[in-house]
From TrEMBL:
PANTHER family in the record: ACTIN (PTHR11937)
Subcellular location: Cytoplasm
Originating organism: Acrobeloides nanus
Gene Ontology cellular-component annotations: cytoplasm; nucleus
Domain of life the protein comes from: Eukaryota
Alphabetically ordered keywords of this record: Cytoplasm
Protein name as catalogued: Actin-related protein 6
Species classification: Eukaryota, Metazoa, Ecdysozoa, Nematoda, Chromadorea
Main location: cytoplasm
Family stated for the protein in its record: Belongs to the actin family. ARP6 subfamily.
Gene3D superfamilies assigned to the protein according to its UniProt record, in alphabetical order: 3.30.420.40, Actin, Chain A, domain 2, Actin, Chain A, domain 4
Length: 393
């Protein structure tokens, strides 16, 4: 029996068999293009779309929760069919779901997995739980904090001995989507109308932005003119004929002909700053470090040292340069001098949960957690809820 691991992210699905070294990536969305009105692009079919300007997104996730099951079904049809060619009779599934941390909406995943696709067994968990479980493989304590900063949200999840400590869960409603939308608004107000260019501006955010380690000093630099402004960059926009992704360059460093470009300065670090200070854009939310401290205040005193000792960052937003350094820098003066902590950023925080699942499967740490198709047909969804529950309290 082969084990298929699907990290079902709101932006990107990372999927592959546990025997493989790396997962496949596909967008977790259905796309429509104003230039190809007769076709709908499902997931990785987007690569066939020549002009990606003004793409319209149909998303299965809203605010981090899977609510549009029809769209997800289309994406999974593409994933399990042409992308992976899954043999359902010989496969079991490990599936990640945000709802395993924060139960909210009706969950149809078990119904789809067993009745529509007919997998032989299922284990559903969260990406953060896989990270905490894999920590025990090296003889380490599986008590830790996992900061999951993804597409729709940022979760601060404390784990005590591998179990989610529910009172300490903190959700910040800021993720990659909010940052991209804010960048679109600022650029549209200051320079060029890009409100419909989600795809392009998301790439611009990824290519140009970084986390500031001294925000006030960086703001002073961004106000300078000429070469004194070391943060100033040009972002050459793609035309999808000769250039299929934008290019970041020093102002005037290359002749780009008639290509459109935007000028970036304070936007480069002010956009990721929203993760740390959401109030800067009138969001009544805690920033990452404040939320981490708030979560820590709920941890039982005897477990607090083990939990704070390992702070693990995952999710696409953690790829901003200086992200983990900023968390460590801001956190150090807020903790007692004798408190040891370490902020760990994996080499690839996007695939880290998938790699942890692979390790757990290879080391048989999940064997007693799977629900078989026969068990599901006999007991229904209740057995899934009982067996997948990973809450300490």
């Amino acid at each position: 029996m082969k084990t298929l691991v699907v990290d079902n992210g709101a932006s990107t699905i990372k999927a592959g068999y546990s025997s493989e070294e790396e997962p496949s990536f596909i967008p977790n969305s259905v796309f429509k293009s104003k230039f190809e009105r007769k076709r709908v692009f499902v997931a990785d079919e987007l690569k066939d779309c020549v002009d990606k300007t003004s793409l319209y997104y149909l998303l299965p996730f809203e605010k981090g929760y899977l609510v549009n099951w029809d769209i997800e079904h289309q994406v999974w049809d593409r994933l399990f069919g042409p992308v992976l060619n899954v043999d359902f009779n010989e496969s079991r599934l490990v599936l990640t779901d945000t709802g395993q941390n924060v139960p909210a909406f009706r969950d149809r995943s078990a119904e789809m997995v067993f009745e529509d696709y007919e997998f032989q067994s299922l284990y559903k968990t969260s990406a953060t739980s896989l990270v905490a479980t894999a920590k025990s493989l090296n003889g380490e304590s599986s008590s830790c904090f996992v900061i999951d900063s993804g597409y729709s949200f940022t979760h601060i999840i404390p784990y005590i001995n591998g179990k989610v400590y529910r009172p300490g869960i903190v959700r910040i409603d800021v993720g990659g989507k909010a940052l991209t939308n804010q960048l679109k608004e600022w650029i549209s107000y200051r320079q060029l109308q890009v409100l419909d260019e989600t795809y392009v501006m998301n790439q611009c955010k990824e290519d140009a932005c970084f986390v500031s380690l001294n925000f006030n000093e960086d703001m002073k630099i961004s106000r300078l003119s000429g070469v004194a402004n070391t943060h100033m960059r040009e972002y050459v926009l793609p035309d999808f004929m000769t250039r299929h992704r934008g290019e970041l360059q020093l102002p005037g460093s290359a002749d780009v002909g008639d290509a459109q470009k935007i000028l970036l300065s304070s936007e480069r670090f002010a956009i990721p700053e929203i993760l740390f200070r959401p109030s800067d854009v009138d969001l009544n939310q805690m920033g990452i470090v404040e939320a981490l401290l708030y979560s820590l205040s709920f941890i039982p005193e005897e477990h607090a040292p083990d939990v704070v000792e390992k702070i693990i960052c995952i999710g696409g937003s953690s790829l901003f340069p200086n992200y983990s350094d900023r968390i460590a820098k801001d956190l150090r003066p807020l903790l007692d001098e004798d408190v040891d902590f370490a902020v760990h950023l994996p080499s690839n925080p996007i695939t880290f949960a998938w790699q942890c699942a692979k390790q757990c499967v290879e080391n048989q740490l999940l064997e007693d957690k799977f629900v078989t198709k026969a068990e599901y047909l006999e007991h229904g969804e209740n057995i899934c809820f009982k067996r997948f529950n990973n809450f300490l309290s």
